[in-house]
Every structure is written in C-alpha cells, then in structure tokens.
Amino acid sequence: MAAEEENPVSTSLPVSSAAVPDSQALISTIEVTPSQPVQPIIPPVIPPMVSAVVPPIAPISTIPPPQVPAPLAPLPVRPPVFKPPVPAQNGEVRTSDSESDRDEPGPTRASAVEYEISEESRQVRERQEKAKQDLLMKRRAAVLAVPTNDMAVRARLRRLGEPITFFGEREMERRDRLRMLMAKLDSEGQLDRLMKALEEEEAAATATGADVEEEMLQYPFYTEGSKALLDARVDIAKYSIAKAAKRLQQAQRRRDNPDESIDEEIDYALKKVESLYLDCTESGDDRPLSGCSYSRDGNLLATSSLSGVVKIWSMPGLQKFSALKGHTERATDVTFSPVSNHVATSSADRTARLWNTDGSLLNTFQGHLDRLARIAFHPSGKYLGTTSFDKTWRLWDVDTGVELLLQEGHSRSVYGIAFHPDGSLAASCGLDALTRVWDLRTGRSILALEGHVKPVLGISFSPNGYHLATGGEDNTCRIWDLRKRKSLYVIPAHSNLISQLKFEPQEGYFLVTGSYDMTVK
After folding, report:
1. Are 374 and 415 contacting, i.e. CB atoms less than 8 angstroms apart?
2. Tally of CA atoms within 13 A in the half-sphere of 495 that contains its CB
3. Separation between Cα atoms, residue 459 and residue 142, nearest integer Å
4. Which among 195, 179, 183, 181 is positioned nearest to 146, based on CA atoms?
5. Where does each WD repeat begin and end (predicted)?
6. What pLDDT, on a 0 to 100 scale, did the predictor assign at position 404?
7. pLDDT tens for each residue of 22-71
8. String of b and e for 365-394 (b: at least 16 CB within 10 Å)?
C-alpha cells in the first residue's frame, strides 16, 4: 500500500468495443491520486443482450480527389488596328468600314491616330490606283462610238485640237488614240468639248453630203482594176467559151459513139506507161535542179537550177542547146509557152523573165515583194501567172509585160499555180495548206479546198475539166472533183513530201508525182 501511495497507479480498463460504433477498441485511462483511496473496481454487469448490428461500411474510394487547376495567366491586350483612310466617292476621307462607326460614342478610335506610310507602300498604292484608272478608262473607251473611216478619224482629231497623225502611226493606231482621247475627255468631265466636236461633224456632214459620197468613192473596199485587166478578162472569157464548147462536144461524141470505150482507152494508156524505161541520164548543172519543162512539140527540154542558169536541151539525145543567163539568184521554175518556143523562168531575185530558145531575153516582169516560187502560162499563151512568198500571185501580159492582176487570198506564201485547160479558171496552193480556185473572168474565189494538213506544193488540172490534183508535205496526193466540191481520193503516194505532180496532158488517164523520197510514180 505504501508503495501504492507513494506512486500514482495508472490502471487501464478495457472498454467493450461492442458499444462503440468504430471498429477499433478505445482505451480509457483513469489516473488515481494518493489522496484518494483506491477502491476496487467492480466491472459493471452487462445484461445479456443481443449483439449489436454494425451497419456496413462503404469501401474507401481509390480515385484521387479532383485537382483544382491553377489560375491562368491574364490574356494579352490586343493592340488597336490602324486602318488607312479610304477615299469615298464624294471626296471625303473615311477611316472605317461603315458610317455608323463614326457616330458611336466612346473613346477616340484608332482611325484618328496618325501613322507614317513607307515610300515603297506609297509607290505600290500609286501603281494600283493607276492600273485601276487605266482599266476604267479602257472600259469607258470600249463603249464609245469611233468612226472607222481614216479620213473621219483625222477630221475628229483636228476638231479636238489634237495632232491628226504621228510619225509611223497606222490607221488602227490612230483610231485607238482617238478612242482613248474621247474616253479621257469623258472621264475628266469635258463633255462640252467632245459634244462640240460631234456637232461640228454632223453639221459638216449635213452641209457637204455630196462631197462625202465622192470621198467614199475614192476609197472603195475592193481593188479597182485597170482597163488592161478588163480587156484581158473579156479576151479570157471569149477564149474559154470556145475551148469549153470543143471539150463538151468531144465528151458527147464519146458518150454517143458505141465503138469508143473509155475503159479500153485507159487500159491501153496504162500498158504504154508500164513499158516506160530509163532512156538516158545527164548532169544538168553543178547545183540541184528545181524544175523542167518540155516544149509543145517535145523536141526541146528546159531545166532550171539553183545556180540561176536555165539550160535548153535538144531531144532525144539530150544535147545542150543553149543557156539562159540573167537571174542574179537561184532559178525556182521554168516552163515553155503552149503556143511558141518561148521560155518563162522565175527566180528568187523577185523577177520573172521571158526568153527565146537561143538565149535572148524578151521581157522582164517585176513587182513581187519576195522571192518567186512557180510560174505557169495561160493556155492561150498571152498571159503568165507567177506565185511568190509575198502571199500573192500575179497575172502578167506576156506581150507588154504589164501586171494585170495582183491577187491576195492566202494567209501564207503562195507556192503552186495552174490554169484550167479551158482558160477560165486558175488554181493556187500555198504553205497555208489551202487550195483556192479563181474565176479569171470575174476575179472571184469560187472554191476553197481544205484537206491537206501541211503545205501544198504541187497542183494540176485534168484535161477532162473537172478533176484537180494536189500534193504536198503530208506525203499524200488528193484528187478533187470541182463539180462536187470535195475530195474524191486521197492517195498515200510517197514516204516523203510531194514536190510536183502533172496530169497526162492529152486525156488525163494517169497522173505523175515526184517526191523527195527520190521516186517518180
């Protein structure tokens, strides 16, 4: 007891965990001091009772609690956008896209802030503004009515106080200048000046109506022919009527005569052609030959060369008869007259010449602006046709040397020419892959034959009067029917370009073609 009185005694009493809601047992500690006697602790009597029901405990979640995000940094302040002043239609300067922005109350907007534009930006804006003004000027000029007659254009320029022409200025350039000038006056508001000029023109036109008609007659849309051309057309018409009548009579006689068979004649002609053989060979010149032609009786042969010399050979022995020297450039073609032994030659020196067989020069035909290609006699022998790289072909009077006709119609150089056996038509072909048929009695182009895909170099009329053969760089030969106005046959004749072709001159039963593949068929 003494020991117990000197030292406090701590007694731990267990407490039943059944009465405590928690699953762990709680321990209560009671301290006893020496001043108080220690009494025995009698455990309370717990009446028998039913064991307490402990409610189920929810399982502890393993999901971590949501984390609160850290506060975001403050957003940067957007600087004000400066908009350049926009010129309005009425001359005012606007700094915003709408008029309502100007009326909104509030602090001063960024449009009022002054800023500096770089020199490069200023130049870019000036160029853009100039391009815009030019575009508007062209649009305005496109709807203006400008006279097409060059004399009227000059008169209006004079009334507007502008130079009527500049050095080297052509008609279309002068008309465009007038159009732009009128558009400029319209855009600058000088309509009174423009209307005054128009009124003066109308007054002048009303006062001098007869003078205007005479002035228009001085500039026709067609080329007025000469008296020599009119006489030539009349002569060609008379000649062609007689030749056509004779040809038709022969055709009718063959049709009505039962003893004549065209098929048998064709077979006979083809058999004679099959018996052809190489008779002789002769070196014509130091340079390549460009053309050849037989005389009407077949006793002479003329050859042209790139050396510019034309030689005459006697047949059948091929003995040199004469040499025709006079061209300063290469000779491009040669042909005999159908009524005499005169020889016509063409050259790259832009001239054609008429020769006698003894070598004497009879006439020179000058007028083409570029080198000549081919030359051909009219069936009457009175006229000569030449083609040139100046995109024209011309008709000449053999006796006088006068140029009767300058005919345009091809978009590129004219190369080949041929005359109808009756003399009424002429056909031309060129580097534009086009063949045209012309009526010599009226001067009109009556037929344009399209089919070749490359330049046409050779052309020939058939003696029957209605077939035409052409050949060119597409290696084909086409047979055209003038009555049907279309191509009848396309002959894949050679493996290279066809340089020349000819119908058999008597009846036209066969055709001969020459090619750069070194063959004649």
Report:
1. yes
2. 3
3. 46
4. 179
5. 282-315, 324-356, 365-406, 407-448, 449-490, 491-521
6. 94
7. 444 443 444 444 444 545 555 555 555 444 455 556 555 555 555 656 66
8. bebbeebbbbbbbbbbebbbbbbbbbbbbb
According to DSSP, the β-strands at 467-472 and 456-461 are antiparallel
- What local confidence, expressed as pLDDT, does residue 34 receive? 47
The span from the first CA to the last CA of the chain, in angstroms, equals: 160
DSSP secondary-structure letter at 111?
A: G
Gap between the Cα atoms of 214 and 224, Å rounded: 16
Closest by CA to 165, choosing from 155, 176, 156, 154, is 154
Half-sphere exposure of 295 (CA within 13 A, CB side): 18
What residues does 486 pair with on adjacent strands? 481
| CATH code 1.10.287.370 for 227-515 | no
Tell me what pLDDT residue 241 has.
95
Give the integer Cα–Cα distance in Å for 288 and 351.
20
Residue 25 identity: A
Place of tokens 């956008």: 81
Name 201's Cβ contacts closer than 8 Å, sequence gap at least 6. 152, 155, 156, 159
Q: Are 294 and 300 in contact (CB under 8 A)?
A: yes
Cα separation, 388 vs 350, in Å, equals: 8
How far apart CA 158 and CA 419 sit, in angstroms, is 51
Tokens of 141: 């000029």
Single-letter code of the amino acid located at 259: D
CA–CA distance, 491 with 471 (Å, rounded to integer): 9
Q: Are 510 and 493 in contact (CB under 8 A)?
A: no
Residue showing tokens 């809601």: 21
- Please state the pTM of the whole predicted model: 0.59
Long-range contacts from 158-164, C-beta under 8 angstroms, 24+ separation = 159/196, 159/197, 159/200, 159/201, 160/185, 160/193, 160/194, 160/197
CA 85, 91, 92, 97 torsion-angle sign? negative
Domain spans, the chain: 135-190, 227-515
What are the tokens at 241?
Answer: 């009527």
Out of 166-170, 260-264, 510-514, give the one with best mean pLDDT. Answer: 510-514
The answer to whether 494 touches 475, Cβ cutoff 8 Å, is yes
Question: Which residues does 239 contact at the CB level (< 8 Å), separation at least 6?
Answer: 379, 380, 423
- Identify the residue whose tokens are 């003894």: 358
Q: What is the mean pLDDT of residues 463-474?
A: 94
